[in-house]
Description:
Structural class: alpha+beta
CATH superfamily of the largest domain: CAP
Distance between the termini: 63 Å
Mean pLDDT: 86
Low-confidence stretches: 14-43
CATH class of the largest domain: Alpha Beta
CATH architecture of the largest domain: 3-Layer(aba) Sandwich
Number of domains: 2
Oligomer: single chain
Number of helices: 5
Helix content: 10-25%
Largest sheet: 7 strands, mixed
Number of strands: 19
Amino acid sequence: MGAQQFALLSAYGLDEDAVASTPRSNPLPQPLIASSIQTRKSNNARATLGPQEQEIVEITNIERLNNGMRAPLKQVINLHNAADGHSEEMAVDDFFAHCDLDSGLSPFQRMVNAGYSYNSAGENIAAGNGTASATMGQWMNSSGHRNNILSTSYREIGVGYEYSNDGQVDRRDLNGDCVEDDTGGPYYHYWTQNFGRRNSVYPVVIERELASVESRFVDLYVYGPTNAQSMRFSNDGTNWSAWVSYTPDYAWELTYGSGEKTVYSQVSTGLNGGGTIYSANDEIDLNNSCIPMV
């Protein structure tokens, strides 16, 4: 086996106002940005991630916190499916590009095909590093990828990671026209981040999207429209707290007992839930929680 090789392409990002690109001095694909009409129906489910993918989500939200106290991104299953599918395609079919060099699908077509109808979207890909922390270092040291990670245009994220030991040289597309124009690698490790925002989806995020906690007392981040006035929460989707004034940061108490916990949120544009209501939920595993004696 030869020396390990690493690659980045320019980061990809698209929103309804602009298309961003970055210099291609590194073999990282350029960040992409895209726009589309959003549908009302959406899948807010949290994906079940592998440990490397979960670590990418957690480090992403740490970077957002450490660079301007930016809001955390909520992982959703349809963005995860789009990202994971692309990492698998790159690993199995021996290419490294934003565009699928066999099917011709762009990142944004893949997101829509996965059921994610976005108003703003972006993608980072990387290859060669075998750990989440090293891959995040690649991205954070590249301006376009860093911009995608820290962008306030996005609320949601999906991550894919795939390993291939076939040792084959990878086809590449350096100019973004979805035609092979270079080769590199073999890279073995393939990473994809997909970012998105849907204008009528306002996620709730538990503990900046950690996989698990040991305390029932958690911090929520609650997205809301600019005219949000009130919000309320529930641990079962039936029994709700009182309506309180909207604020993005809120402390909440999970139910007793170890296991997966779900927090449901409702954000309203009126006082005491009197306006348009936006619903969301998030999950987290609670470990080592003691049930009080009575």
